[in-house]
Amino acid sequence: MRKGIHHHKVGESVDAYLLIKTGKKGIASNGKPFLNLQLTDKTGELEAKLWGISSEDEATFVSGSIVHIQGEVQDFRGMRQLKIKTIRPTTGMDQVKPDDFLPSAPRNKDEMLEEVTQYIFDMKNAKIQRLTRHLFKKHQKEFAVSPAATKNHHEFVSGLLYHVVSMLQLSKNIASLYPTLDTDLLYAGVILHDMAKVRELSGPMGTQYTTPGKLIGHISMMVTEIDEAAKELAIEGEEVLVLQHMVLSHHSKGEWGSPKPPLIREAEMLHMIDNIDAKMNMMDRVLDRVIPGEFSERAFALENRSFYKPTFHEPPIDL
Amino acid sequence: MRKGIHHHKVGESVDAYLLIKTGKKGIASNGKPFLNLQLTDKTGELEAKLWGISSEDEATFVSGSIVHIQGEVQDFRGMRQLKIKTIRPTTGMDQVKPDDFLPSAPRNKDEMLEEVTQYIFDMKNAKIQRLTRHLFKKHQKEFAVSPAATKNHHEFVSGLLYHVVSMLQLSKNIASLYPTLDTDLLYAGVILHDMAKVRELSGPMGTQYTTPGKLIGHISMMVTEIDEAAKELAIEGEEVLVLQHMVLSHHSKGEWGSPKPPLIREAEMLHMIDNIDAKMNMMDRVLDRVIPGEFSERAFALENRSFYKPTFHEPPIDL
Amino acid sequence: MRKGIHHHKVGESVDAYLLIKTGKKGIASNGKPFLNLQLTDKTGELEAKLWGISSEDEATFVSGSIVHIQGEVQDFRGMRQLKIKTIRPTTGMDQVKPDDFLPSAPRNKDEMLEEVTQYIFDMKNAKIQRLTRHLFKKHQKEFAVSPAATKNHHEFVSGLLYHVVSMLQLSKNIASLYPTLDTDLLYAGVILHDMAKVRELSGPMGTQYTTPGKLIGHISMMVTEIDEAAKELAIEGEEVLVLQHMVLSHHSKGEWGSPKPPLIREAEMLHMIDNIDAKMNMMDRVLDRVIPGEFSERAFALENRSFYKPTFHEPPIDL
Amino acid sequence: MRKGIHHHKVGESVDAYLLIKTGKKGIASNGKPFLNLQLTDKTGELEAKLWGISSEDEATFVSGSIVHIQGEVQDFRGMRQLKIKTIRPTTGMDQVKPDDFLPSAPRNKDEMLEEVTQYIFDMKNAKIQRLTRHLFKKHQKEFAVSPAATKNHHEFVSGLLYHVVSMLQLSKNIASLYPTLDTDLLYAGVILHDMAKVRELSGPMGTQYTTPGKLIGHISMMVTEIDEAAKELAIEGEEVLVLQHMVLSHHSKGEWGSPKPPLIREAEMLHMIDNIDAKMNMMDRVLDRVIPGEFSERAFALENRSFYKPTFHEPPIDL
Amino acid sequence: MRKGIHHHKVGESVDAYLLIKTGKKGIASNGKPFLNLQLTDKTGELEAKLWGISSEDEATFVSGSIVHIQGEVQDFRGMRQLKIKTIRPTTGMDQVKPDDFLPSAPRNKDEMLEEVTQYIFDMKNAKIQRLTRHLFKKHQKEFAVSPAATKNHHEFVSGLLYHVVSMLQLSKNIASLYPTLDTDLLYAGVILHDMAKVRELSGPMGTQYTTPGKLIGHISMMVTEIDEAAKELAIEGEEVLVLQHMVLSHHSKGEWGSPKPPLIREAEMLHMIDNIDAKMNMMDRVLDRVIPGEFSERAFALENRSFYKPTFHEPPIDL
Amino acid sequence: MRKGIHHHKVGESVDAYLLIKTGKKGIASNGKPFLNLQLTDKTGELEAKLWGISSEDEATFVSGSIVHIQGEVQDFRGMRQLKIKTIRPTTGMDQVKPDDFLPSAPRNKDEMLEEVTQYIFDMKNAKIQRLTRHLFKKHQKEFAVSPAATKNHHEFVSGLLYHVVSMLQLSKNIASLYPTLDTDLLYAGVILHDMAKVRELSGPMGTQYTTPGKLIGHISMMVTEIDEAAKELAIEGEEVLVLQHMVLSHHSKGEWGSPKPPLIREAEMLHMIDNIDAKMNMMDRVLDRVIPGEFSERAFALENRSFYKPTFHEPPIDL
């Protein structure tokens, strides 16, 4: 499996180990049952249909199991789909494990944790520093592996951490040009803004929204956590309130989930930096298989736009 | 002062004690200083301009002081305005005190507190009951006098409590028709939904938004308080989450300040009951000086509508 | 048929008489014709596909006919669907008739008609009373069986009457708390607001919009009817105009079909009461098969929300 | 009075008879009463302030009276305003009467009535013809003098009739290019669409909305009138319904007052023709005093646009 | 082939030459490949599926080829679909050519070009005339055959020219009623407004948006072309700017693609005339197969409305 | 004049040379003429009224003249206003010139021009480089002094250049983190995006929109200029089209003036960078006179928000 499934074009054949992300039974128009499989490796996902299944197949090819598949990539209404020729379950003999198949951040997670720690270490405002460190330590373990979302951007293992580290670098590079910005506030805002996603989402494997995630959401959860941390650490002063405001307002508008708009300079900047990193991640994704001179598929989370790759830009490496 | 200033029509003369709610200095177009006074008694407010003031006047006629005024109500661009003929500060001799001049709820506050207590007492779900009672006790003192808003509806002493009691009665009368409703949840939601207004607003006199009120808002404050109360009382279980959701969603939409829409039956009902009580309060207000057969002033908070009083309805008692 | 089809879960087998609500011919991807059947009993509806049909089947299994079916409930893209094992038409021998299969209001229609009559009887304003009684008598027969809509809420036999009776009770319970409300106006508004649905909709069986329903709509139809009734009864006075306004404005906003917003206190209340009863009916519906701790399907008419049933609430009786 | 007040530029002096359209008392910032006069002649309107008034002045210079004024046009915050030097009431000796001062349509009203009659006469569908003629006769007297609005466009004596006649000509010229259009329907729609403005508005002098106009509106009034006319004339058939739909839908969208959008070809065309004639009337108005190479004042009813007159266009005749 | 495919009803058989507009391979739920064919003749389009295809079929039945088909029109989810019984490619023997199968304007293109030339000839403003003539000559060849769009309205051979000629006639007929309109400007605006569609679209066969069409659009392209033409012809004066503005603003609003709203009387009129001609074309289209007394399919580009054909109107000739 | 007028608080006296930016005559409510002066120095603006003026005053105190004023800053409806005690025109003796009074960028313009030149010099794509250099040279003189807007942000001498240089630095710092970005495109987009503001605006003194600015706008102007420059330089290739697209789309949405949304990665980034620099400039402005612990005035161009300066931030230097 030298080339990941994300890079297979229509017409190419596939001979690979793949993880079944989800497997749903359906009934074909001829009345026969089939399985609709969402297959994944580190590079991406591909759908496949397994026709004419037995009840044994149904019990075998379930979410979380690894299979060996031979087939061909086909076009189905403008989407790539894998036509299965052979499929078999794997055993210990195959020496494969789920972790090898989950897409994850392009950087090492311990390195990234170290980098966040350094930003906290460099803070000058002791209250902001203590609050941020406390909450970072509290959630560090889940933070290290959590995705940042269920779809659209940074929806991979350690996606949240990767997003935060990118935003910290961006904050530093931007703040160097605007001396009025309080970098302690800005870095703390970046580290805390999405931290409660470790509670809003169910974790890196088969990521879903939790019930508290649906009823309360990560923004309100984090506002509460900051309050409780401040009480626990006996920190008083407006820093607590201001950090809560930054988390609360980072989606910028009521209709996007923030009950208050940013009313502090650093809160507005936090929102813009979040936006840049998310959009770059999404645009890189939709464009990475596009041939120069062509338009991408429509990207729903980017206002349904179809992006263009100019003819004078590089083609994707693996095409 | 038998007839309050709310009831004086254009052309009538006024001879009354009034409280100066706000007094702002301005410069007339002839270059002379004047005071723009917002005067109030229990029935309402009236604007007045005090022309040609000395610096002594400026020091005397300040917010919070009670004055004796003789004058006449005039029309100024469609608004009533008091033309001052004589004005003097009051002394101990006048035997008047600010409390007599602040508009307040039409019911006795202790009676209302008692009524809320009874609703809590009748709850069957012990977790909901303990949480609600704990938070009610915690804020009871400020809750008893706080207005529910700075303007539009229930913006008077004990306005918040009056609004809550009306909503409890409404909840009871509506829930009696829809047996699927969980009245413990609904009553608790009503009691808690606006409770953090005691922190969002600065209190009954010269009510303004506090800094935490502007940066965080009563909804997010209360979600945090519920969490902290549950921890303090060692209450676990989904009741805590559900009560937080009810508070969080009671404005119904993101653009109205709720980060989540109501996703529980009782949360949706809480929003509708809040809406009914606020609208009835506002409509009664805009219509109470309107003569049958005429339209009211436009009410900004009621989508800028001008309401009609049918000719076959009663005229206002004091007109 | 002890348990209605609304209550069958995926995987359960079905052996029941069912009414074919609609039957549409389609062509399968193998080129063979099939029938897409919408099946109904008093508890709800279920889709089924009948594969490989003959032209005789096509002529037999038509809208309005009752069939006996054996099969199993399956999941099709998240929706329940009935897989048919055997199907046969019924004859006189089966002793079944269409009325037994149409969902209808949970209360007896004559009792409900009696209740409306009592509300009219109690009115004090003779003009309002005569107008309301006249129009109620005129449409009473269709009013007694008409649904209130083609979908979303109260879309069953006598749904309109059931909705009106619920709203009358709600009006009474709410008005008891707000003494400024004119109950004659409010009750008359409730009784008349949707009355022209008997002309906008085609009746209780296979309910559709009529051509006048699509081109004019029940709101404008009823405004005209009130005018004509007043002329017929020689009633003059503003009551006629005000009742027309209440009907005209009860959808509250232009984009929801009301050319004028409510400009009278009772008109605003009518809109809010209509809203409460419709929403309670819809929420009860989407939640009634949901297991505690789970979220419902998305409800399009409730802003596409998915509602949650708390774990401490009761499970559905039949699950 | 050779040149009307609409054509006086800032800096020019005025010596003319003018009608007081409205006169409102105000209080100046020095505490003295003044009158805010809206003055009019056939060409337009001008505001003026009369300072330092006595109570006798107040009783003399009232709405509907004609005065003789000498003064000068000045600029007040970008608006023209008349600075009064002398003002006196008129008597029989002045030989002036209100009719001479009201702006009115540029065509003779009897000629226009005759033209409408001819369009009706030429209709081929007898039902449409009889209904239209009946309603036209019924309202002819008020129709002949009614304005089409209180402001924005055609807000002058016979403005409604002038608007209808222009639209009839426009209909004829457009329909000659689209043979699928039913001209009987289109002409009838034009004649009836705004007819109930004779009831929605209070007439040509000091035009205001009536109470039924505010609570019901001309669209719903006319739908009712068509129904009643059809009953009176014993006309049956879909023509009645279709004409009602055309009136109902002519504002095109719910938020503009039409409970149904146009669903018939001729209804859509009616809306577009109404739009063209109203916009041309408004644009001609805002541009008629603009010098080539300059932008007009902002026109609120034209989406607040400021229109440009190209340098190669003609200057206004009287500038 | 006496009756075009646009006029075939469900159930009718078809025996005709048809052009394959597009042919896309799909995989049926039984795993077999099929072709999804979009077939066209001068009257319209019809979809068909060709099941069980060989790789030879795939190579034969490609876009742009003409086939002979026997089959039957069926209903597929409310859409007409052709069920193919026999299909064969055509040869020289069949004496058919693609031009015979492309829908095109109902008028002769040379006649229409002549008509446009006459409008230009009659212009009085020499600058406007020279600019318009120059650009018309430059693009005349493509202009003569280009469609006006890829779908919705005037999407046929010479559709752009036909739309422009209709708009010129409309302009003349409307301008005759509003003497303030500058017809030179208006006619030039009509001729130029969509001219750059010859570059935005790929031409009359298999019409698609070009890359410059997607990245820049016809409006901005044309603004540039006018500037360049003026430089080439050494034309100075505000006419150039005003014509650019007319093209720029003809979509009326930012969200519809115009960076400036119409700020000149003739620009507003251009927008309204464009609107009338497009809507009439679309409504005629959706209604031309509708039987009197029925509603059309929903038309997405007409705000998703379903139009009604009154019972007293003519049925379609060929039904 | 050590401390600029931007920094004077209410109550402070002023003794300074100031430039009259605009002077408009008005009529006071006592009928006397006055001048409404907009006064400016390098730090900001202040309004003043000059009462009881003679016609000589009117001729003396005109836009563009420098005056010496003694007075006091007062509060007028929440805005600072200068109360004039003495005012006199200046002569050569005063040794003051307009340039000293116009607010301008905080950096030297030649230095900034040099910096832009360096960015162009470093470009690797020769087509992009030549186009950008050509257009930069063409407009360099006006570019060096033009403001970026008439209000809101960068509305000072050399504001456009200062905005572009800040954005170039921001581009460099951000692009260093996202290697997929084409910096040639991004830098060229930054340099060109607002270049046509030199034609849209009337220049640095008394900045207004020009007629072409209002009718066409800087975006469309620049798209044309790029096309013409490419023709002049005989540059072909997609770079021309892509640069036009970047300029065209940099306002991101139709309702904000861009006929196409960004469809290329660098175009999206250009929009975000423009946004960051404009917002930082605006926020710094509204906050720079705010005392820690207080909220700023509402900023219309920042969604009418009122920004907060935390108590733990620095107070303004000069307060």
Automatic annotation (TrEMBL), chains A, B, C, D, E, F:
InterPro entries xrefs: HD/PDEase_dom, HD_domain, NA-bd_OB-fold, NA-bd_OB_tRNA, YhaM_exoribonuc/phosphodiest
Gene source species: Salipaludibacillus neizhouensis
The biological process GO terms on file are:
rRNA 3'-end processing
- Protein name in UniProt: 3'-5' exoribonuclease YhaM
One Pfam family linked to the record: HD
According to the lineage, what is the superkingdom? Answer: Bacteria
GTP-binding listed as a keyword: no
User: Does the entry feature the keyword Nuclease, yes or no?
Assistant: yes
Q: Which keywords fit this entry according to its UniProt record?
A: Exonuclease, Hydrolase, Nuclease
Which Gene Ontology terms cover its molecular function?
exonuclease activity; nucleic acid binding
Which residues fall in a coiled-coil region? none
Identify the residues that the record assigns to the HD/PDEase domain, covering every copy.
156-288
